[in-house]
Write a structure and sequence with these properties.
It is built from eight helices and five strands. With 186 residues, it is α+β, with helices and mostly antiparallel strands. The protein binds FE2/S2 (inorganic) cluster (FES) (2 copies).
């Protein structure tokens, strides 16, 4: 790490990468990200994570960064339909695979059923973990319309919620699977 930091950005390191086919950087480069159904050209450094690209150049701040090393799932988005921690994916690795963020989950005039269920069942407190939690729950629902408690607990097991909303998240998802609406206190 020390050696890497000591290299002048525009001399030795650049010459090394110029001489190595297939390597990128360390300077910025243009990539196209396909996010929420639209293609976006962004100019980013190779070290930029998908989470940073979403929140920075694309302004999609619904995706949260908390731990920034794959331990809390706050930054969860869909990559090619799978829930992933976007802080642990380099933006230049994404290629043409579609990315869906919390901003792309709802329709123009309607919320996603998971968003409605979270509201109905009071599964939100400070809200910092909520976008990532909803992306994982929506991914679960897409592959399993009737998840049981074990399925739901497995789906949210990597999410840290310091407000402790887990019981309400489980209730919201159980109600969705059972086709029920309304609050968990009914
Ligand atoms: S911010 Fe990505 S896993 Fe914590
Ligand atoms: S609602 Fe606050 S961290 Fe989960």
């Amino acid at each position: 790490m020390e050696g890497r930091q000591a290299l002048p950005m525009s001399t030795e390191f650049q010459k090394d990468s110029d001489a190595a086919p297939g390597m990128a950087g360390p300077g910025p480069l243009a990539v196209v990200l396909h996010v929420n159904g639209h293609a976006h050209k962004v100019v980013i450094e190779p070290r930029t994570t998908l989470a940073e690209a979403l929140r920075g150049p694309l302004g999609l701040t619904g995706t949260k960064i908390a731990c920034d090393h794959g331990a809390c799932s706050a930054c969860t988005v869909w990559l090619d339909g799978l829930a992933v921690a976007s802080c642990s994916v380099l933006a230049i690795e994404v290629g043409e695979r579609p990315v869906t963020t919390i901003e792309g989950l709802a329709g123009p005039d309607t919320l996603h059923p998971v968003q409605e269920a979270f509201i109905a069942h009071d599964a939100v407190q400070c809200g910092f973990c909520t976008p990532g939690m909803i992306m994982s729950c929506a991914a679960l629902l897409a592959r399993n319309p009737r998840p049981d408690r074990a399925d739901i607990e497995q789906a949210i097991s990597g999410h840290f919620c310091r407000c402790g909303t887990y019981p309400h998240v489980v209730q919201a998802m159980l109600a969705l699977g059972a086709g029920k609406k309304g609050t968990s206190r009914e």
